[in-house]
Design goal:
With 112 residues, the protein is mainly β. The chain contains no helices and 11 strands. The chain starts with a strand and ends with a strand.
Length: 112
């Protein structure tokens, strides 16, 4: 069974940092797949936050450039999202996505 499981969300003050993890299982060769972090804020649609393309190129939404870093550990089959200098507008449910498979999401709340 193909699965994605996120962890690392929580409550953080503005300016703080969090690192999200997404553990993958059941993929035969996920090292060659594009992987994504997406988020959905309350009352808003899905936003593509960061991507590692199949060839390895990384792309970020303008709203997070310079603050978020996407990375992967292929040996451990884990995807990460390092989030620094968090803002209240980063509050959302964050999910990882590979192809048509989605994780359940992890809540990130940025508030003082």
């Amino acid at each position: 069974e193909v699965q994605l499981v996120e962890s690392g969300g929580g409550l953080v003050q503005p300016g703080g940092s969090l690192r999200l993890s997404c553990t993958t299982s059941g993929f035969n060769s996920d090292g060659y797949r594009a992987v994504n972090w997406v988020r959905q804020a309350p009352g808003k649609g899905l936003e593509l936050v960061a991507t590692i393309a199949a060839g390895g190129a990384k792309n970020y939404a303008d709203s997070v450039k310079g603050r978020f870093t996407i990375s992967r550990n292929s040996a451990q089959r884990t995807l990460y999202l390092q989030m620094n200098n968090l803002k209240s507008e980063d509050t959302a449910v964050y999910s990882c996505n590979v192809g048509t498979v989605w994780g359940q999401g992890t809540q990130v709340t940025v508030s003082s």
